[in-house]
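Task: complex structure prediction.
Instruction: return structure tokens for all chains below.
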Amino acid sequence: MTEPSPTAAVLIIGDEILSGRTRDTNLNTIARFLAAHGIDLLEGRVVGDRRDQIIGALDDLRHRHDYVFTTGGIGPTHDDITAQCVADAFGVALPEHPEALAILERRYGAEFNAARRRMALVPEGASLIRNPVTDAPGFQIGNVFVMAGVPAIMQAMLEDVSGRLRTGHVVHARTLRVSGVGEGAVAATLEAAARGARHLSFGSYPFGAGTTGEIGTQLVIRGRDGASVDAAAASLLDELAGAGIAVEAL
Amino acid sequence: MTEPSPTAAVLIIGDEILSGRTRDTNLNTIARFLAAHGIDLLEGRVVGDRRDQIIGALDDLRHRHDYVFTTGGIGPTHDDITAQCVADAFGVALPEHPEALAILERRYGAEFNAARRRMALVPEGASLIRNPVTDAPGFQIGNVFVMAGVPAIMQAMLEDVSGRLRTGHVVHARTLRVSGVGEGAVAATLEAAARGARHLSFGSYPFGAGTTGEIGTQLVIRGRDGASVDAAAASLLDELAGAGIAVEAL
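Output:
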């Protein structure tokens, strides 16, 4: 592998996430999307609808990662302040974008009003991100992709973002399912395997805790070289099975 | 209200969240728990199982908030590095905690081993957080509460945390459900209401986008004075209904 894979951060914007009213699902959707593109998602942030927080997080993240993906705060109501914050972070104006305006006029016809017109405000120099669900576009400025908070719309916007990204080497993963014992019973074997293959990552994710059902753990081996991952998974499976532990490859 | 309500941050630790393998639910659980205690959750972070990231985020958050709640990375496997990172962030040692050791010995009996013994390592000066599900405790050091990543365990640990927190004034919320029109149709009315009651917050959360079902938006009015919230909700409902919009109080 010659060039390192790109890195990314996600910034979730919205009081409703921090108040507990809404359970965020966008971070997971974006994480899976980035994994499929071989882009390393290194961190996530959740902030409220507050100017200082949005700008602070955005400026921090966009200088440290190849890409930043934001969700939320681009609707027509007064609490939607993301576009203004992004413009201020980049130090550019926030004019009406002619194409966004045309899209919104077409969408709303006689019901187009001042509030909806706010959704045509796009930071200078940004390009639009298509919204096939409700038309009101997101936008890209520099390495920042600004998307809607509604999950169905956010997910649709990722389609348009896809072609704009530099892709990396996809991370391969193999999972072994250990059952009947807790992760403490396999920890030493797992650690020895991890020490023997430092270019791979080995994780353990227990299940069944607190239930009356079966307990166990899923061991996940990850790395950018698929053959190494396969070999490490096969070897770990052999070793655990040889020690009399119930284990299967998923 | 004389004293400001306490503020808090949540730090979610785990590669499995950033890889997309696992969808985090702990942030939402903690958010609801804090809301019930009148504590303002101001931000969330998600980082991987990486020492520099964990320590960096922890040091940033614990100095800016009254409380920090972490989840993940306190199990028996080699990728569980949270306790060590917390000790290093606070500049203290990480000895075996006698009570934690006794709890684990009792739990595992003949199956107690070196990996499980790691779970007795607790930063000097920390107090234990009880785990009624699988016994292995979390801990509190200073204003930081370190909890398990498995949702059922994390939730149970919050019970023990509850009594240790300074509570604030609970935020009251009223929700109006607008149907048949998008949020752009009520944005101006909502903004005027918000301008008239700056001690309250007014949010709009659309639903139905991208489906063939009903569209609409939920308007949420929030504030620490319940009577003001009720009055603002009643007034907004009257105004919207008077304008011929289908709206009901939830």
